[in-house]
Amino acid sequence: MNYLVVDFEFTFYKRPVGRPRAFFPEIIEVGAVKLDENLKEYGKLQNFVKPHFFPNHAKDAMDFCMITDTDMKKAITFPVMLKKLSAMYEAEQTFFVAWGDADYKVLNEGCSRHKLENPIIEADYLDLAEAYKLWKDEENTPSLKTAIMEMECVADGLAHTAFDDAYNTGKVLAKMLEKGWTYEAYLRAKEQQKNN
Fold it and tell me: Going by C-beta distance under 8 Å and a sequence separation of 6 or more, which residues neighbour residue 46?
């Protein structure tokens, strides 16, 4: 199996009033690194993505992620982003890896709202935060920053920028594999947790 390590930055609405009806988080940046089975990098993706449904409610997320209006002028549409991501992914041959479960959810919701088929099979989705938590037998799910420190990785770039977060998630994955973590053991731990 290959690994497509992905991070999305997306919009949110946290104000107490004024939330638009049917609001949902929209992807505003995608970062991805493709790794082969030996963890050698052989593809990457970084793009800003135009929010289609609620563009007027993207400012807070853009400020949080340090995305400027100039960046957004170079942004691609969600369907174009999906096509680029799909080109890096082979069903049942590629783990779609992200830190946490939010990335797959936001992608799936975006596909649904745009009336596009999600090319990523849910069975290929690997929530590395959950895998890390089970592997370390921790009570709470650690942040990516915590995992980077615990695994003694050298973090690249800035937190909350999609490509840098994807790249650093890939580093944590590589360290876990180096230290003996396996996908099969993760599935067993997940099943055991479900049965407890």
Answer: 29, 30, 31, 32, 162, 163
Quick check: 30 and 164 in contact, CB under 8 A? no
pLDDT in tens, 167-194: 999 999 999 999 999 999 999 988 888 8
Around 15, how many Cα atoms within 13 Å sit in the side-chain half-sphere? 11
Residue 89 makes CB contacts below 8 A (sequence gap 6+) with: 4, 96, 119, 120, 124
In whole angstroms, how far apart are CA 164 and each of 8, 29, 55, 121, 169?
11, 11, 24, 24, 8
Structure token pair of residue 115: 């009336």
Give the model's pLDDT for residue 55: 93
Question: Tell me, what's the pLDDT at 165?
Answer: 97
Cα–Cα distance, 162 to 182 (Å, whole number): 26
- In this structure, are residues 3 and 95 in contact, taking their beta carbons and an 8 Å threshold? yes
